Amino acid sequence: NNIFTIRHLADLSELQVYNLIRKDRIDILVDLNGYTSAAKTLILALKPAPIQMLFLGWPGTIGAKFIDYFISDPIQSPIESFRDSFTEKLILLSHVAFVASHKDLYSNVLNEPIYNRSKLGIPENAFVFANFNQLFKID
């Protein structure tokens, strides 16, 4: 009656993981990656579990019919703006899903000077491209 098991799956092929999920008779499979570098989306595409959900690792829909639900919150996924954009059914938590205090995590930034166009010598009518990502993603 062991209902809690942790398995190391990184070294298995997608088909091996699919077969293991089917063998274990997983009813609800929750993906924490979405389309990230460690994703094994092919496993989900094979639909190994009757109910498949996406949570935490990806900030929006993955646009695939094989994910049934997207677990989010009203801040990340405002219903009035995005409901029709999701291929998944939305499950919205009543509070924010991402528990992180930027004020605590990045307190050093609060003391940084505030930059504006004139301080940086950028004309007021110039286009500014900004990417708030990790540098390897724009390389």
Q: Globular, elongated, flat, extended or rod-shaped: what is the shape?
A: elongated
Sheet with the most strands, sense and barrel status? 4 strands, parallel
Total beta strands:
4
* Helix-strand category: alpha/beta
What is the number of helices? 5
Radius of gyration: 20 Å
Percent strand:
5-15%
SSE pattern, N- to C-terminal:
HEHEEHEHH
Distance between the termini: 49 Å
The residue fraction in helices comes out at: 10-25%
Instruction: Give start-end ranges of low-pLDDT stretches.
Output: none
The mean pLDDT is 83
Strands in their spatial order, largest beta sheet: 1-2-3-4
What does this structure look like?
With 139 residues, the protein is of the alpha/beta class. Helices cover 19% and strands 12% of the residues. The protein has 5 helices and 4 strands. Helix 2 (41-45) links the parallel strand 1 and strand 2. It is elongated, with a radius of gyration of 20 Å. 9% of the residues are buried.
In short:
The protein has 139 residues and is of the alpha/beta class. The chain is built from 5 helices and 4 strands. A 4-stranded parallel beta sheet has the order 1-2-3-4, with no helix packed on it.
Summarize the SSE layout with pairings.
Elements: H1 14-23, E1 28-31, H2 41-45, E2 51-55, E3 69-72, H3 79-82, E4 89-92, H4 102-105, H5 117-120
Parallel strand pairs: 1-2, 2-3, 3-4
